[in-house]
Amino acid sequence: MKLDRLLAITMILINQRKVQAQELADMFDVSVRTIYRDIDSLNLAGIPIVTYQGQNGGIGLIDGFRMDKNVLTRDELGAITIALKSLSTSYQDAHASAVLEKLKALSNEQQTLESIFIDFSPWGGNPVLKEKVTMLKKAIESHLCMQFFYSNSSGKESNREVEPHTIVLKGQSWYLYAFCLQKEQFRLFKIARMKELNVLKKKFVRKEIQIDDSPWDKEWYHPERTTELTLSFNSSDLALMEEMFGVENVIKGEKDQLLVTIDMPEDEGMYRFLFSLMDRIEVMKPEHVRRKLKNLLQKMNDLYKEKG
Predict the structure, then answer these.
(1) Mean pLDDT, to the nearest integer, of 12-22?
(2) Which of 76, 214, 232, 262 sits a CA distance of 20 to 30 A from 186?
(3) A Gene Ontology molecular-function term (predicted)?
(4) CA-to-CA distance for 183 and 79, rounded, in angstroms?
(5) In what order do the strands lie in the sheet with 185-190?
(6) pLDDT tens-digit profile of 83-120?
């Protein structure tokens, strides 16, 4: 990822007076243009990097500038190391591994590095998902369009061609935030629903998006399309419901009944979610959601009813 590369370039320039842009491009398997974009990003971050012309030219830190190699505290080194180790559970990146080894060498507190580990991979492992994320990452960095078949939440399959921009981990799932050429707008694609991925030779110019504003949230949450649900459950399931909906959202009802009120987009995903909890919750409001769940239960009962 770009952050890994920026950190590695910074460390190289700290230890070397000058380095050729092509050398960095070969080292990280990117274009020279990408390296110069990285240099611009580092300059914006306050690291004064300049380019020297001539036969012995190259990229280096400005004369007279020195950076304290101990600029990162032990805790900061540990935090970065934990982040890189956690990311490695979901995608393969040789550069991130190289940076990780350097950071581990700077920190001799093995106990600190092992105090927390975030595993983004699903239980049982999913090598196919890891391969998809790795492929998408390479396409994003190379500014190459992608084609794949995608199944939406209703199971409808479509052939998509997109300009991949950002890989997103949201909740417990990985998504691709990409500009869909068919729809001519940004869409959020669940990576697990993508198949027959193909990186095309067609280049694209990355569009300006504000990552810090999490624009993909707008793809899922539309206040005008949400429904307020009131759910009831028994106190025996309190721990599960507090974990799922938040302690602050659980209130006491009559007797040992507990209630939670949440807003959810009303789509097939909402009904599947509610159906997965039907042995633990009762939907109190709204009435039209109760009716639809009753119909779904009746269909299931008919499906499993003994014949003859």
Answers:
(1) 78
(2) 262
(3) DNA-binding transcription factor activity
(4) 40
(5) 185-190, 173-180, 157-170, 144-151, 194-203
(6) 666 555 555 565 666 666 555 555 555 444 455 555 55
Instruction: Please check the confidence at residue 211 and state whether its pLDDT lies above 80.
Output: no
**Mean pLDDT (whole number) for 20-46:** 85
Residue 167 has pLDDT above 50, yes or no: yes
**76, two tokens:** 């900061």
Three-state SS sequence of the chain: CHHHHHHHHHHHHHHCCCECHHHHHHHHCCCHHHHHHHHHHHHHCCCCEEEECCCCCEEEECCCCCCCCCCCCHHHHHHHHHHHHHHCCCCCCHHHHHHHHHHHHHCCCHHHHCCCCCCCCCCCCCHHHHHHHHHHHHHHHHCEEEEEEEECCCCCEEEEEEEEEEEEEECCEEEEEEEECCCCEEEEEEHHHEEEEEEEEEECCCCCCCHHHCCCHHHHCCHHHEEEEEEEEEHHHHHHHHHHHCHHHEEECCCCEEEEEEEEECCHHHHHHHHCCCCCEEEEECHHHHHHHHHHHHHHHHHHCCCC
Q: Phi/psi at 253 (nearest 5 deg)?
A: -110, -150
Burial 90-125 (b: 16+ CB within 10 A, else e): bbebebbeebbeebbeebeeeebbeeeeeebbeeee
Q: Report how far residue 74's alpha carbon sits from residue 137's, in angstroms, rounded to the nearest whole number.
A: 30
Q: How far apart are CA 242 and CA 279, in angstroms?
A: 17
Domains and CATH numbers, the chain: 2-61 (1.10.10.10), 74-113 (no CATH), 127-212 (2.30.30), 223-304 (3.30.70)
